[in-house]
Design goal:
about 110 residues; alpha+beta; two-stranded parallel ribbon; 3 helices; about 20% strand
């Protein structure tokens, strides 16, 4: 067994969902955005516009020097988001499927 039952605590999800979007790099911590509800592609683009782009502009002279890492969440992989990232010259780090263990934020 991967986990001993005595260390597993059942949980229940109640009330509103709170989500956090954050970023960091070798140049330091970036912005953190907390919001209620669920993320969709439109909301994700708003977060990227308000938080990611200013962070990239402050820390890198050229977007080509920066690679953005995100996982395979539906709002990250939506066509509208991919188009937005491409239009804003945000380089994505290739992300293998089912690889949450590679995420430094987790």
């Amino acid at each position: 067994r991967a986990y001993h039952p005595k260390y597993i605590i059942p949980s229940e999800q109640r009330g509103p969902t709170v989500q956090i979007w954050a970023c960091f790099s070798g140049k330091g911590y970036g912005p953190c955005h907390v919001f209620a509800g669920t993320m969709n592609s439109t909301r994700y683009i708003q977060v990227l516009e308000q938080h990611l782009l200013p962070y990239i502009r402050r820390n890198w002279r050229q977007h080509a020097d920066c690679y953005f890492q995100q996982d395979g969440a539906t709002c990250h992989t939506a066509r509208i988001v991919k188009t937005w990232l491409n239009r804003h010259n945000v380089n994505l780090l290739p992300w293998p499927a089912k690889s949450a263990d590679l995420s430094p934020i987790e």
